[in-house]
Design goal:
Number of domains: 1
Number of strands: 0
Order of helices and strands: HHHHH
Shape: globular
Largest sheet: none
Distance between the termini: 13 Å
Structural class: mainly alpha
């Protein structure tokens, strides 16, 4: 992943994973909450599968995170 967009996407997913962990939610629990399998969550977190905006919002709601805050934090990240 070398493009700016890909780097931003990677940072967004990193923030999403951290928010899930901070909420004390496992991949399996998140999968249940969004109607998917644990493997779906794993592939998203490992950047093997991209999620669209609607899926991103659904995941954020399921873990109690504000999607706007996660995106803003990823945009301001200097990883």
């Amino acid at each position: 992943m070398t493009s700016l967009r890909s780097n931003l996407y990677r940072r967004i997913i990193e923030r999403l994973v951290q928010a899930r962990r901070d909420a004390g939610i496992t991949q399996a629990e998140l999968g249940e909450r969004i109607g998917q399998r644990q493997t779906f969550v794993s592939k998203v977190e490992l950047l093997e599968r991209r999620i669209d905006v609607a899926e991103f919002i659904s995941v954020c709601r399921a873990i109690g995170a504000d999607p706007n805050v996660l995106i803003a934090a990823a945009e301001n990240d200097t990883l």
